Amino acid sequence: MAKAVTIKDIAQHCGLSVATVSRVINNKGAIRAETVERVEAAVQALGYRPSMAARALKSASNRTLGVIIPSLTNPVFAETAAGLQQQARLLGYTPLILSSDYDDALESSAVENLLAYQVDGVLLTVNDATSSAALERLDEAGVPYCLMHNVPRQRVAGFIGVDNFRAAAEVATRIQALGHTRIGMVSGDFMRTDRARDRYAGFLAGLKYAGVELAHLVQVDPVNATGLQESLSRIYSQEGSHPTAWFCSNDLLALATIAQLEAMGRSVPDDVSIVGFDGIQAGALRQPMLTSVRTPNLEIGSASVDLLMAQIHDTSSNTGRKLDYHLMEGGTLAAVSEMPDPDSGNTPDPHLQSLDESKDDA
Amino acid sequence: MAKAVTIKDIAQHCGLSVATVSRVINNKGAIRAETVERVEAAVQALGYRPSMAARALKSASNRTLGVIIPSLTNPVFAETAAGLQQQARLLGYTPLILSSDYDDALESSAVENLLAYQVDGVLLTVNDATSSAALERLDEAGVPYCLMHNVPRQRVAGFIGVDNFRAAAEVATRIQALGHTRIGMVSGDFMRTDRARDRYAGFLAGLKYAGVELAHLVQVDPVNATGLQESLSRIYSQEGSHPTAWFCSNDLLALATIAQLEAMGRSVPDDVSIVGFDGIQAGALRQPMLTSVRTPNLEIGSASVDLLMAQIHDTSSNTGRKLDYHLMEGGTLAAVSEMPDPDSGNTPDPHLQSLDESKDDA
DNA sequence: CTACAATATGTAAACGTTTACATCACCATT
DNA sequence: AATGGTGATGTAAACGTTTACATATTGTAG
């Protein structure tokens, strides 16, 4: 292992003290232009790279940002991580990405891990922002942080995400407006994440506002979607009228639902409509495209970095921001094909603004 | 920012020297059982976490593994990263994951970055293992590393991956065996990654062995697949017989190709067969499933960690390993529906072993 | 009873930075 | 000419560990 070149080597090579070299590197204080050049040349020549370890030790800043996401393989968080990494790189920061696997204990241990690395700040998506030991720990440690995707009701240091409640409510009225009266929802990780909860609550509220009842609620394991196949085939094997539309709390679930329905001989969207949530690439790579609430995942990542930076440097009071989502048209959401139930008939109302979202906490 | 508790605090709290505490924590040397208990209790009580920075500085080991992957959002690498992180966690290591965005310069700078962090070793997928500045730098620095997905011809410290050449060749004979005679290939990042090159070379070799010629080669940008739509519509708008099967060098490309073909009114696999490469989840979440060469991505990650550990500790001579892939049956690969060209008729031969793969380097 | 190994702990230096403080030269103001 | 400000650099301490070496305490064999 070739000995790494240190600041001392540079100092020696230039006939300067390490202090001066350090000042040049961080361009702090007043240095002669010629000295700067000399040092920079030496840095180039010897291939010097400051040791992050030593930097962190002096507890100034090691230009490292901790990141905790629930899953590396879920495209939503992968995209968020990509956006964040890009922005961090632009600003000269390195992200240290950890996955919590949707597990509270791992979430907490990830925070401890990041604390041990003395990161300058943390970007994270927690399972449930209303009751997160990880978040409390960060508050306690006084480390700046910014939540991604979580949009908590209580006050937090910072957050960037979309209004899941409102978006889900909008989906509900949109579905109803197309004549559907028997509507189901497929939700994953229901008790585990605040997003799923908000989406469920929003969807219910939207349906209620539109005067429709939720016909079915299918809950499945978020990771491997166990139980989906069974639940769906049970529902569709029963007599009577089946749901003509399903809202799925995320796109992965929506794609699994479509695959299952098609395997059961139902055509999407001719027989049954599907709406997802997230707008992942895999949804766009099919024909017809998966109708979905498209969330700006890359931007959630990069905006979170910006907000965190503001916190770190300006100690700004800006506490968070809701980003716009986009409910796409067409795709796997179509007008109902069967005759609607006789008792339906109220006109959809677009005034979603009147919806109250501050109640439905489970 | 609450002052972090250090090893000194523990020492003071226990009436011991820092040396003893350090020894307890790393359980090195001989310590009285009662002392161990006392220290561990204090660690628990005060919530002590050793500073990674200080550890790294003493240049022992900071139990950190550097990771470089071409993309966070490509499911293949996301899965690999997930597998690797899981295994690393098991062994008490923390992965520091960086994305190179398929860019050689970023690849190199990522290596420099990891070197600055004094990681114990590096796990990485490079664009092209035969000419990688990043790899040379690692060799020069003497840092243990293990390639993931790259299966280089020259000697390297370590690698874990599948035999892309052989797998692609197998795909070729499989397609031909189903009666296809007009076969195309869609390849991304062709000049950029050794995987795409090996798959192309293997496919060509396989076709040649089966006595078929490649009818079309469509090359597209790996990231956004620009040019795919244009190329395909040009090919299918021409007079004459069109390809009845396409091999795509990865699943993302395969899904995009299917979407495009279906948008052009072709049915998959009734009119045209598609075979991908990687076996990503999105391919399995459609009906019919995307036929693909399934690579053990999670295992590539975890096996790489194991191999790297062997390198770090045992200075083992084990230099690399090829993992099994699996070419799935059915799905989007079906027997040809049109009449095959009159001049075809040779029987496929399963003796792929005779294929020589040591020639086709671009 | 002495001596020597083994066990258990303490002391202090080192790792590569950053930074408060000191120094020195130079020039401008009184 | 003395004073003081400013610009450029050096000195040395500190950050939280690990670890070679020293020391102290035992048990045990001669």
Verbal overview:
- 2 copies of one chain form a homodimer.
- Helices cover 41% and strands 16% of the residues of chain A.
- Chain A is of the alpha/beta class and 362 residues long.
- In chain A, strands 2-1-3-4-5-11 form a 6-stranded parallel β-sheet, sandwiched between helices. A 6-stranded mixed β-sheet of chain A has the order 7-6-8-9-10-12, with helices on both faces.
- In chain A, helix 1 packs across helix 3 (33-46), helix 6 (104-116) packs parallel to helix 7 (133-141) and helix 10 crosses helix 11 (251-263).
- Chain A is elongated and about 90 Å long.
- The interface between A and B is large, with 50 and 50 residues.
- Chains A, B: InterPro entries: HTH_LacI (IPR000843), Lambda_DNA-bd_dom_sf (IPR010982), Peripla_BP/Lac1_sug-bd_dom (IPR001761), Peripla_BP_I (IPR028082).
